[in-house]
Write a structure and sequence with these properties.
Among the domains are: 295 residues, 4-Layer Sandwich (Deoxyribonuclease I, Chain A), CATH 3.60.10; 97 residues, Immunoglobulin-like (Sandwich). The C terminus is likely disordered. The chain is of the alpha+beta class. It is built from 15 helices and 25 strands. This is Phosphatidylinositol 4,5-bisphosphate 5-phosphatase A.
Length: 614
């Protein structure tokens, strides 16, 4: 298990975090889970509003970096600027159950979340583990306040279920974050001398957290590796130099990673079962800072742990059986078998994932696990069966994984080994595949898709909200304004509703120089009008000099609202032309033509004065 903590100081994410996560090394192959705790992520009002709709940039970065290494986002929780993410290899997902999150605010007396703690707890192979990311009060003299806030977090955070209701009730607790403990007594000159001389051990005994571990009852049992790396706070941003500002903060090990193993209980536990005694052991393999990251006044800290369980649950709750390859749509049959005691739900579904997917709802397609005889299969331990429709299958070649998502536990209860899909690619199928691929990329950009209480895996609820309006030609000074005459018409963009609309289409008023800029010349327009007269594939434009016929291939015709699918409720005019025609109608007693259709009469621009509306 790799644990990372970093106070990012409201900075934007760096381009590369592979060294921070110890990727591209031999260690990565052995790492099964990664927990990342961030503090001081930008939480200004405008940024929080955006992050409330879409996943924050830091989470996106870590998912992008870790997914090629087959790490899947198991769970995430955020409290203003404090974020916690837990990743695991995809084949461990069925053994990560009972996932819950919690958060506790301690800033401003418990009303503000700039300080406090966020946690993710889960059962790993049948053992309860809790990850706790904290940001405690700053400054040297606030040591007692830090103790009180930590005690408050431990007291306030409670989880549901028959076991491990409190944080310290878990078999294993990882506590990390910007804990803000400082170095007492020693002046800044001696601290910097010890750092430069690499005699860090002379600073350990004055470290507030080391002192507190032996004096505070709330910290009894917490362990930490030796601090063989320089203090991680405070640096000038963009450098590896300690604070050179007027405040000249004393360097300190504010960013820490600790762990605690639950002591074995005595006697018999609930239900007559002997408690787990010596069920796990923890060894710290690495504990270091990363000086190469300079975007913050803190340096990130990482630790790698080897956790050994005396026993583990190694049979998934749902076993999925599938062919080694799908080369025809009729082969897309999925058979699955549920274990005794599995809590089946009618909201369970089976997702089809590309190898390298980022989180449980980053699927290509899905099918509801609603077999007609599902209950009988569960009771008699028989295999149920579902089938993916041909439309839901990706076209082309690729490696995929099937996962059974349990709505009851909000987690994946069973996965398959990677298998091949080789379906013929057609033009229509290719575009469908591309769109489904883009959907899966958009799905992970919202927080909705990460919400554990979301029942439906429908991608329609998880995409970014995008405008369906067609792209307009980039004419300068183009304005869109509603026509009062056309208010109340249908807003449906469907072809059926457009066919039923009256043919009085809005006018596009363009100056002569604008037409010339787009290569539309009078002679060409005249020739186009003669060759296409009587055809529906040309448009007329009312100008001061009369009607002009425009080829459907010209930029002007492509800007026609009829071709674009715009509704008659929109009027497209140039600002200067609109103002000029309004003045002209006042002086001459005419108002501009409202029609733009091949069937418009040539004299529509010369309406009599008495026909004007006041």
């Amino acid at each position: 298990i790799t644990v990372v903590t970093w106070n990012v100081g409201t900075a934007m994410p760096p381009n590369d975090v592979t060294s921070l996560l110890h990727l591209n090394t031999g260690e990565t192959n052995d790492v099964d889970m990664i927990a990342i705790g961030l503090q001081e992520v930008n939480s200004k009002i405008n940024k929080r509003l955006k992050d409330a709709l879409f996943t924050d940039q830091w989470s996106e970065l870590f998912m992008d970096v870790l997914s090629p290494f087959h790490f899947i986002l198991v769970s995430t929780v955020r409290m203003q600027g404090v974020i916690l993410l837990v990743f695991a290899k995809y084949y461990h997902l069925p053994f990560l159950q009972d996932i819950q999150t919690d958060c506790t605010r301690t800033g401003l007396g418990g009303y503000w979340g700039n300080k406090g703690g966020v946690s993710i707890r889960l059962s790993i192979f049948g053992h309860m583990v809790c990850f706790l990311n904290c940001h405690l009060p700053a400054h040297l003299e606030k040591a007692e306040q830090r103790k009180e806030d930590f005690a408050t977090i431990l007291h306030m955070q409670q989880f549901e279920g028959p076991v491990a209701n409190g944080i310290l009730d878990h078999d294993l607790v990882f506590w990390f974050g910007d804990l803000n403990f400082r170095i007492e007594s020693l002046d800044i000159c001696f601290v910097k001398y010890a750092i430069d001389s690499n005699v860090l051990s002379q600073l350990w005994e004055k470290d507030q957290l080391n002192i507190a571990k032996s004096t505070w009852p709330v910290l009894r049992g917490f362990q930490e590796g030796p601090l063989n790396f320089p203090p991680t706070f405070k640096f000038d941003v963009g450098t590896n130099k300690y604070d050179s500002s007027a405040k000249k903060r004393k360097p300190a090990w504010t960013d820490r990673i600790l762990w605690k193993i639950k002591p074995p209980s005595k006697g018999w536990g609930a239900g007559g079962h002997r408690p787990s005694q010596g069920v796990l052991s923890v060894s710290q393999l690495c504990y270091c800072s990363h000086m190469e990251y300079t975007i913050s006044d803190h340096k990130p800290v990482a630790a790698i742990f080897a956790v050994q369980f005396a026993s583990k649950v190694d049979k998934p709750q749902v076993e999925i059986y599938v062919a080694d390859e799908w080369s025809r749509p009729e082969q897309a049959v999925v058979r699955y078998k549920m274990a005794v005691g599995f809590h089946r739900s009618s909201w369970d579904w089976i997702g089809l994932y590309r190898v390298g997917f980022r989180h449980p709802k980053d699927y290509v397609s899905y099918v509801w696990a609603r077999s007609d005889d599902g209950e009988r299969c569960l009771e008699k331990q028989l295999c149920a069966q579902v089938m993916f429709s041909e439309e839901a299958l990706p076209k082309g070649n690729g490696e995929y994984i099937l996962g059974y998502y349990s709505n009851t536990s909000s987690s994946i209860a069973g996965v398959t080994e990677p298998f091949q899909i080789s379906l013929p690619r057609s033009e229509e199928g290719s575009s469908s595949t591309d769109s489904s691929g883009s959907s899966s990329e958009e799905d992970d950009s919202t927080l909705v898709l990460l919400a554990p209480k979301s029942r439906s895996p429908s991608p329609g609820k998880m995409k970014r909200h995008r405008s369906r309006s067609p792209s307009l030609a980039k004419f300068q000074d183009l304005i869109l304004r509603p026509s009062s005459r056309d208010r109340g018409t249908s807003r449906s963009p469907s072809p059926q509703s457009r066919r039923s609309l009256p043919r009085n289409i809005p006018t596009i008023h363009l100056p002569q120089e604008e037409l010339g800029r787009h290569g539309v010349k009078g002679k060409e327009l005249g020739q186009a009008a003669e060759s296409l007269e009587g055809s529906s594939f040309y448009q007329t434009v009312q100008e001061q000099g009369g009607l002009r016929c425009v080829s459907a291939d010209s930029p002007l015709a492509r800007a026609d609202p009829w071709n674009l699918g715009l509704l008659p409720a929109l009027r497209l005019e140039m600002i200067d032309q609109a103002l000029g025609r309004r003045q002209e109608s006042t002086d001459q007693g005419y108002y501009p033509c409202r029609k733009m259709s091949p069937t418009s009469p040539p004299g529509c621009g010369t309406s009599p004065k008495e026909g004007r509306n006041p």
